[in-house]
Amino acid sequence: MRIIFRKQALFSLKEIRFYLAQRWTRKELETLQDDISRELENVSTGLVKHQEYADGIYFALVGKSTVKMFYTVENDEILVLDFFNVRKDPDSLSF
User: Fold this and answer.
1) What is the mean pLDDT of residues 8-30?
2) Total number of domains in the chain
C-alpha cells in the first residue's frame, strides 16, 4: 500500500515533535517515529484495524500514547490526515 501524508499531518507532526523535543529524550522521539512507522506498516499489511473516529477515519495512539494519528484507507492508499497531541482540547481537532 502507498502511504500519503497530508500537508496538515506533516505540519502537525513537526509542531508536536518541536514541543516534545523540549520534554523528551532523543530516544523517546525516535520511539515516536518508530511507532508511527510500525502502525502504518500494520495497517498496510492488514494486521491491525484501529478504532474508528468518524465515518471511515481511524486513529492510532503512538508515542507513549500521547499522540493520535488519524488516517483513512481507500483502495491501495493510506492517507494520514493529521497528528494530534492528546493533551490539547479535542474540540480544536478538525479535518
Assistant:
1) 93
2) 1
